[in-house]
Write the structure tokens for this entry.
Amino acid sequence: MFKVTEPQLMNETFARAFNSRRIENMLSLYEPEAILLVDGSGCDLVGLPAIAEEFTRLLAAPGTMVSLNNFCVCRGDIALLRADFALRDGERVIASGSTAEVIRRQNDGSWLYLIDHTVGASLPSVT
């Protein structure tokens, strides 16, 4: 299980959790009623069981993830993050994009995802 004590390390920790190939490590970074969005459809996956289903599909993809924090804006116990990620199988990029997330500090001082939009910062502009 992974524990994040500095909010700017959340995305790097998520990549490490993915690369461990253990769904428990990934889910340990989410609040029990967190929301996960995986595309621009507006379909929310709410709660750990729904998120676990999506992560089971994600873990079927080959490769290693790298996720670098683009920014972290903190206000009290809430932080807004953006990360740029890539899933690579050797030299081949399987998937890449930019996330938008809200994380919240827990009573023990750790940070967990409250809202995770996996491609939120990659979506095209609304015109």
Remarks:
- Helices lie at 10-20, 23-27, 48-59.
- The chain has a mean pLDDT of 91.
- The first strand starts at residue 30 and ends at 37.
